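Hey, sorry for the delay on this. The queue was backed up all week. Below are the sequences that define the complex (chains, strands and the ligand SMILES where applicable).
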Amino acid sequence: MNLDDYRGVWVFIEQNNQKIEDVSLELLGAGRKLADKLNVPLAGFLLGDEIKPLANQVIAYGADEVYVIDHPVLKHYRTESFMKGVMLLAQKYMPEIILYGATPNGKDLASAVATDLVTGLTADTTMLDVDVDSRLLEASRPAFGGNIMATILCKKHRPQMATVRPKVMKALEPDSSRHGKIIEEKITLNEEDMRTKVLQIVNDVTKKTNLADAHVIVCGGKGMGDYQNFQLIHDFAETIGASVGGTRDVVEAGWLPHEQQVGQTGETVTPKIYFAIGISGAIQHVVGMKNSELIIAINKDPNAPIFDVATYGIVGDALEIVPVLIEQFKRLKNEKGGEITYA
Amino acid sequence: MPEKFDVIVVGAGPAGTACALTCARAGLDVLLIERGEYPGSKNVMGGVLYRKQMEDLIPEFWKEAPLERPVIEQRFWVMDKESVASFGYKGLEWGVEPYNNFTVLRAKFDQWFAGKAVEAGALLINETVVTECLVENGKVIGVRTDRPNGEVLADVVVLADGVNSLLSKQLGFHKEFRPDEVALTVMEVINLSKDKINERFNLEDNQGCTIEIFGDSTKGNLGTAFLYTNKDSLNIGVGTTLSSMIKAKLKPYELLDYLKNHPMVKPLLAGGESAEYLAHLIPEGGYHSVPRVAGNGVVVVGDAAQLVNAIHREGSNMAMHSGLLAGESIIEAKNRGNFSESTLNIYRDKLHDSFIIKDLEKYKDAAHTFESYPQYFKEYLPMMNQAMSTFFTVDGTPKREKQKQIIKSVTAEKGRLRVLQDIYRAWKAVK
Amino acid sequence: MHIVVCVKQVPDTKIIKINPKTNTLDRRSAPAILNPYDAHAVQEAVKIREKTGGTISVLSMGPPQATAVIKKSIEIGADRGYLITDRAFAGADTLATSYALSKALERIGKELPVDIVICGKHAIDGDTGQVGPGIARRLDIPPITNVIEVVEVNQQEQTVLMKRKLANGYELIQTEIPCLMTVEKEINEIEYSPMPNMIKAARYEPIIWAVSDLENVDRTQLGLKGSPTIVGKMFTPPRPEGGKKLEGTTDEQVNQLMDILLENKDLFTLQSSN
Ligand SMILES: Cc1cc2nc3c(=O)[nH]c(=O)nc-3n(C[C@H](O)[C@H](O)[C@H](O)COP(=O)(O)OP(=O)(O)OC[C@H]3O[C@@H](n4cnc5c(N)ncnc54)[C@H](O)[C@@H]3O)c2cc1C
Ligand SMILES: Cc1cc2nc3c(=O)[nH]c(=O)nc-3n(C[C@H](O)[C@H](O)[C@H](O)COP(=O)(O)OP(=O)(O)OC[C@H]3O[C@@H](n4cnc5c(N)ncnc54)[C@H](O)[C@@H]3O)c2cc1C
Ligand SMILES: Nc1ncnc2c1ncn2[C@@H]1O[C@H](COP(=O)(O)O)[C@@H](O)[C@H]1O
């Protein structure tokens, strides 16, 4: 394998029902930086059924090139059919880096492709960089349960591949005036050859928490003391129209269902305002919320690590402070006779 | 049809494991059942492991067992509000083979020890609670566990389920405790660096020190406290009889807090980090509380049989030795093909012939009276060194024997009759 | 029906400690356990066997102590277990791991053809979830990841019907046997093992293979040599700089906070409803 035969940074554009997943747009943002550093084009690649029109959006979000494979058999994601498409593209165009969103399908696809391309794959990356001289992708990810970060390198194989966690990279502002090249690739696929059939797709929104899309989150920790006191978190959230989250300790104590856990083994959230109340700020929690726009921490221990990520911190007893906050907001609402909304 | 074993041992503490090991070595089919996640996971002990009885089971165990430190110094403190009268013995001979005793962390030690029984062929099952003994025609024929299809049969069931032995209560061997028969002890493991420990306790390398504390440690209640050095942690604990705790309306953790903040103790702990908090009962009824230890198809060993010398804080050694004796008796019963109470009473007899019952009998009217003699100990400290060394070296010799030896060696020095008298009075303190 | 479950021994990351000086895992601090997802995988195999009959084997790659997780699997209900252990496997990344496991699966399959392979969604130490699909590719069988329910195993038709978790729900998938699935925790509850299983596990001696026991092995694909990824460096995540701590009494601090929130109109506005 001659490593210099491989050039370009590629991003897998995951789409569902002709809608591009946010993580793919985020990866275009991250990929753009890598491509600029390496001085190569950034490409997105799209597989599906009647998805060609999405190519322009991929360009608007930063790609120079879009590779498209459009085929009815690719209507639903399946490892078998999708990996055939990716193998075809990767072997023909030989990119040096391929990024995938760390979604169920992205991870599934990347794992299969890595095996057949016989190359390295870094899972659940949260930091990306390249070393310009060696052209090595530096994919860093939490290791050993998030206690530590490890930078994974793939020195002797190409392409270098990584799956990247949703919501940790930033998408660029779309620019519809951008120009790019759209390359269509043909593939032969027969439905009869497929060993796997997708019989039905069920969108089950009831199970999904509203945390991921929430503008404001009130998150409570073990510092609330007990189940009874934790109701203050619910009261406060209700007063300001926020969603409720909790730390793993809170979930394990049974004060909240698992769906509402924020952090490494829970949801990653990026609200506009994040209240961290009675939360110590363990790294596993922080990785799930540190990209929130405004973080307000209330903790009675002035040395709690949560203050390192908080925009504003109040050192004090949450059991005293939260009721005052609730009261203040209620008073304001009464005075103005209004509702709280978020821009 | 439930499976049948030669022996089922309930509880993988020192007593149960010693018994399982002994039986398995003799080729018996042994099932050892432990309710904890692994042996030692829930077990509490101040932490002194005596050499002799362990050595009887596994020669030169110190070469591979996970021990903390060999104890080279035993200190005794009689503490007041702002003072402490200290005496003790430090001997480098205790720091070399074959050693005298060791500090251990039970979570590590029990696991290793049970591994030895498994190596010998015993089957160990964790995370399983024995809920009752199966009794048929007045004979124990097996146990029921809390698992589905949970019954297992055996010729002999060994109850090694610790101080509160629900199983021997179920069989009517063991009454509910009177509050003055048990001590409630609370302890904490406090992480502290090896360097700090060595500096504060005046130790080198891996040498260990134990401090037994009397007096103000229990706010004047009948009981004692202790502070032991592990590799890079300390064990500190305090206990009083349940009756005095009830009388004085003490909460156990308050007592421990009081001790940890005592001006004599606090500097030793400074900067340490609390790693574990444990509470446990110690049977302290001694000789008078020892229940029936054998029945048809069943024997009782260790704490379950109340075999603890409260004054010397010896328990694990008695547990192990009783387990060994029970094992030997079961092997004998197997040879005879008879597991009736009369055969298994071999165990009871062995127990009575051993240091265990002899020591318990010696202390049968014991009370914690060290408090009364601080000035006394201070004065004669130097002369007592030799006596202490002999006395606190646990080697399986009954204490009464030792006492004779010591008295003999001291009387040899004519003209020191006064000393002899005083030392004799010191013995009275622990009698 | 022959089901093989791949099980891994992992350090319990809940209790793990990192040596701050060397940034390496203090292995003594972390007890080794059966990867929790793999426990669910074994439990699911037991549930399938209840309906179809057959045999459950478990397969692990790891150091000799990893026999502990095989015994744990027998407690849950597996019939037998294989451990592949050899210096040559050491240092394997997911690519080399899936290669070694697929070679062992080939040998197991020679003794008794394999119908379904089950893996955990991911191992809690590596957290990759890449080994399962990797094995499937090497055996050329379909991988179905993130399975939350096995609806039906149809032995006549040689198909499996299952639900696969998606970001916003699930999909119902049918695939052919043989196949590989990776399972989520919610697929089942681990049952309290019956006493006979416990006794069987305590007695059980796993079958242990070295590389030389496997056939047609390309040694360059094993262990460190066969691993394209390497760990460049380890570092503790950079601590972000703290923001501003508010001062004053509780009421003063709350008032300041209210001002901050309400001033920043971008974030937070009180709109009168009329
Ligand atoms: C592999 C792994 C994955 C994990 N994944 C996650 C995850 O996804 N999400 C997660 O959250 N955690 C996760 N954790 C756990 C994480 O390490 C922490 O244990 C957890 O976040 C701590 O929760 P806490 O802050 O609620 O509790 P604590 O750490 O107990 O903190 C409570 C805080 O409340 C403060 N406090 C107490 N009383 C008051 C009061 N009256 N007023 C104000 N403040 C008060 C205290 O000073 C303290 O700082 C994971 C751990 C591991 C090992
Ligand atoms: C604070 C404290 C300090 C002490 N200090 C010392 C000391 O320094 N030196 C010393 O030698 N002794 C000391 N002792 C006494 C010593 O700990 C005991 O005497 C010794 O542990 C007794 O051993 P055992 O095997 O009889 O019981 P245990 O060690 O209590 O073991 C009983 C085992 O049975 C298991 N079990 C119980 N019920 C069931 C059931 N139903 N089914 C299955 N398993 C069950 C338990 O989980 C446990 O593992 C101390 C005790 C305490 C509380
Ligand atoms: N060393 C191993 N031995 C057996 N199975 C493994 C091993 N490593 C990974 N697996 C299987 O692959 C799954 C995913 O692991 P990973 O890709 O490492 O997250 C695990 O849940 C196991 O089922």
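DSSP finds 15 helices and 17 strands in chain B.

I'll add it to the shared folder too.

S.
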